[in-house]
Amino acid sequence: MHGTVDYILTDLRRRSLPDAVEAVLERVRYFGLCMIPEYYSHQFCEQAVGIIRAHEANRDVDIWRDAQGSDTRIMGIEAFQSELDIRKDVLVGRVIASLYGQPPGSGFITSGHLLFRPGNLGSGGGWHRDSVHSDQFKALVYLTDVNSDNGPFQYYLNTSSENSLAELEEHYDIPVTENRISCDPTSVLPVDRLVEVCGPAGSLIISNTRGIHRGKPIQSNERFSLTSYHWKGGIPAHIDKLVNKSCLA
Ligand SMILES: O=C(O)CCC(=O)C(=O)O
Ligand SMILES: [Fe+2]
Known about the structure:
Blueprint: H1 17-31, E1 33-36, H2 42-56, E2 64-65, E3 71-75, H3 90-100, E4 106-115, E5 137-142, E6 153-156, H4 162-172, E7 194-197, E8 204-208, E9 213-215, E10 222-231, H5 237-240
Antiparallel strand pairs: 1-8, 2-3, 3-4, 4-10, 5-8, 5-10, 6-7, 6-9
Helix pairs in contact: 1-3
Protein name: Fe2OG dioxygenase domain-containing protein
InterPro entries: Phytyl_CoA_dOase-like
């Protein structure tokens, strides 16, 4: 495992569950990232997109939007539709539990719907680390085909460990304390560490979002996704207040 494309796991179906879990863990620990093309069925993706659209049109649902109206999120969508709870998938559940060293504590699922709008910053609002102080592991499922133009997840490989944070400060002047990256990493960091995660609907991405990443600004079309968020302790209060909690009447 040493080429950048090795973060993609293509032979999952030939592996037993324990072996598949190990293969994903190995990649997330080494690269900070693992992608499994078409892990979820197209039928699951189509149904999920329909459910997300319906909830976006429901005035009783709490919806978050970015300033450009390019990124629409429903936090806690699994409270309305439990089949969207990707944490219940046995592979996702075991991988996340192993990465955190304990069963997933609290968390939720967020739906993501990206649309092209002039000046959009991409999902996540530009290059950042979700957390500089501790590992943060997320599972992301593409519900529509994702190519270079409709907002792929972009990630700098091997940027999530304590050592690599120190290396980035020493060699590239990216402070270890910096959550939002103030420089343009594409003009500072080696281009061969950058991956643009494109893939068909159903592709599953598990990553350590302590590493440097963003959703690429969307240039055309749209992108639907589901993302799982996890915390060892409770959900931080400033996030928890945005999360949908109960079933609609
Ligand atoms: O959805 C994506 O591609 C990345 C989003 C992200 O990085 C975030 O919301 O923190
Ligand atoms: Fe992020």
